[in-house]
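Re: beginner question about structure tokens

> Can someone show what the tokenized structure looks like for a real chain? I only ever see the sequence side.

Sure, here's an example I had lying around. Input first:
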Amino acid sequence: MSEPTKRPLSPLIDRNYPKPKLKLPPGACDTHFHFIGPQKLFPLKPDHCFSHLEFEDTPIEDWLKLQDALGLQRGLHVQSMMYENNYDLVLHAQCRFPDRLRAAVIPWPGITDGELEILTKSGVVGYRITWRLLKEIDQRLVARTHDHGWGMHYLVKPDEQPDWLPQILKSPGRFVLEHMGGVDPSKGIDSAAFKFVLACLDTGRCWVKLSPRPSKQNDFPFTDMDPLVKKLVQHAPDRLMWGTDWPHPQYFKPMPNDVRLLDQLLDWVPDEKTRNMILVDNPAACLGFPPL
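And the corresponding structure tokens:
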């Protein structure tokens, strides 16, 4: 009998953390990262959306080293799509760090009110709605999670999902666009997709995460993102947050260093007061962290 074909390994994270140039203020928050494993305790969903690859464990202990190296004190744990509707790891992390962590999860339509109450009490604040797992937005689940005080966190491709856009704008309460709203930087700030992101911000209920994730470049300095970032900072600095996307599963070639991602903020947002708003004040307002 032949051996089963071994899947390729997603690039390993860069665990070399030189001292950042940017010294962070108290309460600085990374609003986009994922825990993976230990997979012996928290196995990924079989046949998940990235199951063509193997992934190394990047558990809470790795994240703590990252936070210490960058000078971060808070974070929004975004449930990986590789866990889909299993929130065991989310609940474990929230119970370990109830004040330091908040979370956005991917509940299944059959989730009970009792489960929603447990997750809410633990510090879950968001329903993650992603184009990779859904063809349509589940408005019933949107309403149910909103009733528990959650915001909607969208991973969307505006150019490919025009039917989602009016629904996103009508989201009840606050909502978040991950990864700069999924815009294509090659189309510039006058594109329909980027105008949609600005329209979301203009509702006064939307926060957008600054990230080089949509870049068409494989490595630093991701200059194609600069015009979009600078326009967002000019347009609505009080509605922006920042995230590393650690551990960057299969997205970058080569694997980025998170200290460099942090120091990129010095170029993206040179004004210290605005930068501190993005790193501290805006996440606190959107995600409901306790006072420092």
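Each token stands for a local structural state, so reading them left to right follows the chain. The chain has one domain: 30-287.
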